[in-house]
Each structure stands twice: as structure tokens, then as C-alpha cells.
What does this fold into?
Amino acid sequence: MMEIKDKIEKILGREVTLVHPKDLSHGDYTLIADEKNAEEDFKKLETQKLVEVERIELVKPRFINFYLSKDFFKKSIGEIVDNKDFGRGEHAKGFKVMVEYTDTNPFKEFHIGHLMPNVIGSAISRVFEWNGAEVKQACYQGDVGLHVAKALWKGDYVVGAKAYEEDPQAKVEIQEINKKIYERTDAKINDLYDRGRKQSLEEFEKIYKRLGTKFDYYFFESETAQIGQQIVEENIGKVFEKSEGAIVFKGSHTRVFINSQGLPTYEAKDLGNAKNKYDKYKYDLSVVVTGNEIKEYFKVVLEAMSQVLPELAKKTKHLPHGILRLPTGKMSSRTGDVITAEELIEDVKKKVKDDEAVAIGAIKYMILRQAIGNDIVFDIDKSVSTEGDSGVYLQYAYARTNSLLEKAGMWTLGVHMGEIRIIERLLYRFPEIVERAGKEYAPHYITTYLTELAGSFNNFYAHEQIIDDSPESPYRLAITKAFNIVMKNGLTILGIPAPERM
It folds into this structure.
């Protein structure tokens, strides 16, 4: 796009915005001109013909449509075929990004709710990488706090959570356990805690491996608690104030940062986490992926951070996502009404002949097919549909090209004959899509694009003989190879496995 855009701007003597029309019958690019100048702009562009453009048209009152030439498409196919990394850009070159996501809590199960931040955070990380940034992936885990004390009280989090709300004596006992965990003053509690924490973290690693997740850093509330508490205590009377034995921050709404027992809350720990992360890796941007339900919470944390750690607050981007639920409704770890990630993976595997790569792809696609902030009702049957709008659909299209290319053996780019196909008019756009996904923190743009691209390939495959003795067969194979590269790269960014055979 940039070369064509630059040439148009040179002809018109001003900056312009080009968009792709939704309807391909309206061309490959559209310039939305000022109504007063549209006809004059059109005449200038028509007079000084652009090499890459076959024709332009003015759709009054203000739309100038550009139709790219066959030579442009042949050149773009050749560029893709010669570049296995097609789609990589330098938009964010030199930029250091830390993406914090998943944020599982030891002593709790990795349920399907954790899949949302895991899949989204992992995809966002790769989007930044493909835009040229240096990216570090981090997981911040709640290994201290009331949830741990509830789990250690009777060895069962659900039992402890229920008792904490309903039994005053149990509540006192759990609070005492919580204090001992922080202080490390009870040998029996320490032993239970250490063994439980170790086992939880080992189980999480098994899930991460299945999901293709690899973290560069692990941060824990136990190491950030003291840092956060110190930050708060140093700013009492300036940013924070004492209230009923606790220390609070009065922002858009009041939140407790140190409770009446003198222990740091999640809010204080998040301050400590921001500083701890920056001390370990001097990022330019810290993206924190969490659920929508803590948007207001995080808003206040950022308000406090802007006063005590102003430079880090400027570098922090909160990226909230929706809820993943099954048709049966929302889960609750407090009541034990949860479905683990492993259970969901196994349920989907049963639908796809026990193929884990296909099951993982189906789950990730359903999460990444729409804007991050939206809730998702996960329909297993829809997730494994081969008719389109699924990870399986993309994987099948990719696998089909491998078979075709293997069958064809050696070939060259060949000549372009006939009409320009829809697939040709989509393939060259991939780098633009990756760049936009990075700028807007929106991997669903890539998912939508790949689904449309797969549809265009399947249509191409259904209506044309790709391998035959005709002069155009090598060019059709080049289109197939270009699709193969773009689809694999797109699936890689999304974290969806790309099986060579299916």
C-alpha cells in the first residue's frame, strides 16, 4: 500500500487515506476525497497514470476507486513465494514490549476462563513480534492471598471459600492462616504451602505446553507484595491515607491498598508488580491482559500508579477481554462449578478423531475470531465445523495446499493469464492486516482475513484445475504456494497449529 499511497500523495500534493472497499467489485483501493475537489483529484490521477493501476473511476460525490493491474498481482505473488516470512514488518522495530497474561493462581485449577487471557495474550505477543518489536511474555501468579489460605484451611478451596462466607469461626482461622503464609512463621503451614505451590506450578506447565505457551518471566504476588507495600507506605499522606485501620486510595472510587491486618491487597501488589517487571526488563510498553470484570479495579490502580510511578503508568496498557462460557452458563471457582481447560480440550478432541492439534486450533480460533472485549459462548460443534468460520476450516485449506505442492514437484512462477482472481486481490494485503492488528491490539483482524482468504482459495480450487499441462498451471501453483505461506504465517501468529497433513 505504501508505494501506491506515496505516489498518489506526490501527484495530489497532500496526505491521503486509502482504504480497501468491502465490495471487491469497487476496486482494490478507495480514496475518499473532499466533495469539492473529488473531480479535480480524479483528473490529476487519471492524467498521471500510476504504473501499478490498471484503471481508476470516480464514484460521485467523493469516492475514487483504484483497480490494480495484472502486473502488480503477478509481482506480489512472486514476492510472497520468495519470502517465507511474508507479513513481517518493522512498524514496531526497536520497541520493547512486555505482555503479561494468563495470570493463573496456584491452589486453583486452570479452568476455561484462563484460556481467554492465555490465547489472547499469546497472540498479541506474536503480533508485536511480527511488527518488529522485541517481546517478552510474562505470567503474574497469585501465590499468596486469601484464596491460598482458603485452600489450605481444609485442603479444598471450594470448602474453604464457602466456610469463609458462612462460618465466622472459619473466617477467623482462614485469616490467621493467611497471615502465617505471609510471615512464614508456621512450619506445618509452610510445608503444606510449599508442596501445594510446587504441584500447582508443575500442572500449569503441562497446560502451557499443550497450548504452545512459553513465558520468559514468571512473577509472583509473594515477591511483589513487599515492594508494593513499601511504595504505599512511602506515600501515606501524599497519595494514600489511613482509614479505619487500613490504608486507602481515593480515586474514581476508593480502594484499600493495605488492609486492617497490615497486609498488602491486590492493588498494592499490582504496584509492586509494575516496578518489579520494569526492574527485570526495561520495557517501552507493558500490556496487561485481564478479564473485563476488573476494568474498574485496574482503572483505580492506574490512577494510583500515575501518582507514585508516573513513568510506568504511561507505559502500561490494560487490555480487558470478555468471558468464555459454555451454553450452560458462567462458571464459579468459589462454588466448584468449573470446567477445566483440560476437560474442554478433551471434549473437543472427541469431535476431531482425537487430534490434539485440531482441537487446540478449534478452541483458539473461537477465542480469536471476534473483538477481544466481547464475551464468547463456546459451541463445540461450531468450533469443529469444516464449512467455514473455524480453525479446522483454515487448517484443512493449508493442508490441502501441501498435498498439491508436493504432487506438483518443481515449477516456476509462470505467466498470468485470464481474469484477476479474488485470492490474488487478498494475498498481498497480509502485511497491512498484521500491522493494523498490532496498532489496534486486535488479532481478530488476522482471523477474519484468514477465513476470507481460505474461502477464496477453496473457491479457486473448486473452479480451476491447478495442476495440468496448460501454460498457466505454473502461475496457479504460484498462487497456491503464496496462499500456503500466508496461511501458515497467519496461523503461526494466532498460535493455531498448522498440520502439514489432515
Summary: The first helix runs from residue 2 to 12. Residues 92 and 133 are 5 Å apart (CA to CA).
